Amino acid sequence: MNRDHLRKRRTTPAKRLVLLSLSIVLIVFGAWFSTTNASTFLKGYLLFKTEQAGNDSHTTEHIVKSEPREKDSEKIPVPKVLYSEAPEKGDTIGDLQIPKLDATLPIFHGTDEEELEKGVGHFAESVLPGESDNSVLSGHRDTVFRRLGEVGKGDLLVVETSAGKFTYKVRQVRIVDREDRTVIVPKPKATLTVSTCYPFDFVGYAPDRYILVADLIKSE
């Protein structure tokens, strides 16, 4: 063996001791650090940076989403309370005017056959006409809504009640299955949804519904 080889063999145990000592020091330091405010501070800082990054992302998203949109600009302020008392089932609550058809139809509170035989029925679980949210009206395709298929996007629907005169503009025409419950879901602004059976010339119980979705554009 040469001298260099012997020297390496003699110094190897010393190096091992140094490494062992260093490992012990690191372990002890780690245990101390995890039980002190330093650890809490570091965790808090990392959490802050993570939340800050998330907030920056949300802020950017919010700015993009809050840019003016045409449909937002068309929202009409509506008082929270328009009617002093709720109508009873079967009560006449107003008239539905359809200028395109030159028609004025009475509206009754409720959508049972008793109400629908007399005119347009107001779905009792929806808000009253003119109020914020979705006011839903229904009628038979072979009586009051015989010509409703002639009404489409851009046409006006006017509802006059004890609370005032409310003009709506048709935004969307939908044809849905008769079991589709999206017709009566809440809306973020004053909306009038008018529904009747479809097809109009169907013999028997029609399988679909013809839907007009209109936004409030004027209150008097």
UniProtKB/TrEMBL annotation:
Species assigned in the record: Planococcus liqunii
Gene3D superfamilies referenced in this protein's UniProt entry, alphabetically: Sortase
One Pfam assignment: Sortase
Protein name: Class D sortase
Keywords: Hydrolase
Residues spanning the signal sequence: none
